[in-house]
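Input record (Table S2, row 409):
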Amino acid sequence: MSSAPTITRRADFPGLITPDGNPWHYLDTAATAQKPQAVIDAMSHALGRDYATVHRGVYARSANMTLAYEAARRRTAEFIGAKSENEIVFVRGATEGINVVAESWGGANLKAGDRIMLSQLEHHSNIVPWQMLAERVGAAIDVCPITEEGLVDLDWLEANLTREHKLVALAHVSNVLGSVLGAKRAAKAAHAVGAKLLLDGCQSAPRMRLNMAELDCDFFVFSGHKLYGPTGIGVLWAREELFDAMPPYQGGGSMIDRVTFEKTTYAPPPQRFEAGTPMITEAIALHAAIDYTLSAAGSGGMESLFAHESGLARQAREALSKINSIRVLGPERSAGIVSFVMEGVHPHDLGTILDEENVAIRAGHHCAQPLMDHLGVPATARASFGLYSDEDDIEALMRGIERTQRIFG
Ligand code: PMP
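Output record (4'-deoxy-4'-aminopyridoxal-5'-phosphate complex):
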């Protein structure tokens, strides 16, 4: 195997041990990441000794909780290189973030005859909300193809975007193939026709350095649980002017300025988009997850996490490619995610045999059925890496695959 990975933090993750004390080779980080003790502790303290509501309390505990909740917003803004914490709306996850944009921005800005550009490799959560919007307003959807290697075909995108396109929505990193989008080029192409660009950052936020100004997108979403944080918290980023012009997504407490039965006025963003009691403990734990991730990344920052995980993906690709019955999908340079198919073995069977070896992979369509259709397979097996992954995980995967080969002859 080639270069050794530089980051191994397995000991920080209590979930990486089986109940009988053996290492658990968790290769499903693209679905959801395991949690470091620091995040579990932050969540536990926030739910226990520190717990109170935010924004309304007159007592000290509530005021402290408000400070912690708003500190999480500031930390998130710093983490993604946003200009201000007012550009950060906490949502339930990436799915909700995309739905906010589709409902609120899309509802206000798209009309019959307008077009939305997606790509062949999108996750269902970056397809279905746009289909629902398109149906509601009478807009149409176009699909940018992917290259043979598995990258969004930016030549095609540039050649086929028109003034009718009001929105381009693309995965920054594919959850199936690990392909990294040429985001700046996509932004330039979208802006050249006056369209907005939404980036689905679910798979890039945990493994890439992010800077909103450099990416030049208009909306960015990601989920906390893929970034070593808890479920139930995600982030929607947009510039303040864009949020300012958007109507609320949901109505309720906290999102208002003044309520009367005659007329209600709304709070400015980000509060306008955070109706109801927010995900207080989840936001605080997300803060801890960002701190943890950056400390694990060390002085090399997020770039070293990318190098670590893409290095493991390369090693896995090399090892898998040596097996005749295996077809490895996606580009050589993958952001820590490798999909493959094994001739004569359904990915679910492979996943079940690997489970017996304490190796957890994902088998299925990965919420990307249009991509499966394009690849001509019903499902793939997927191994995805996190900051805690190491060469032992790849060796365990390969041992399990060899056993599967013996079983299936
Ligand atoms: N987009 C991508 C690329 C993803 O990988 C995922 C999660 N698998 C999502 C969107 C949806 O994220 P969530 O389910 O956390 O809302």
